[in-house]
Design goal:
It is built from four helices and no strands. The chain is an all-alpha fold. It is flat.
Length: 106
């Protein structure tokens, strides 16, 4: 169950990061509310995951999910540049997250 909590926390990190951008420095009400709610959910679920997953593994996986998700969302939704080198490095992050999951033994 801890890994499911961690995945939820990572997905909420994607949501809050995108909402943060859309909030335009907290001047837009709806994205600001989405940011506050999703950031809170992300931290709560990260805390639940930390009950059984080592902190280093959990934090790296959480930020990895967020980094990959936001990078892909940026390319798909916000017209961020899509290059082979960017995609390769995103792939490396994914490999690192998978490696941490496998090496955690849980």
């Amino acid at each position: 169950m801890a890994w499911i909590y961690l995945i939820i926390a990572g997905l909420m990190e994607i949501v809050w990061a995108l909402a943060l951008k859309q909030s335009q420095q907290f001047t837009q009400l709806t994205p600001t509310i989405v940011f506050l709610i999703s950031a809170s959910i992300s931290i709560i679920f990260l805390g639940l995951a930390l009950k059984t997953i080592p902190i280093g593994t959990a934090y790296a996986v959480w930020t990895g999910i967020g980094a990959v998700g936001v990078a892909i969302a940026g390319m798909v939704l916000l017209n961020d540049p899509v290059t082979i080198i960017r995609l390769m490095f995103i792939g490396l992050i994914v490999c690192g997250v998978i490696g941490l999951k496998v090496s955690a033994g849980q």
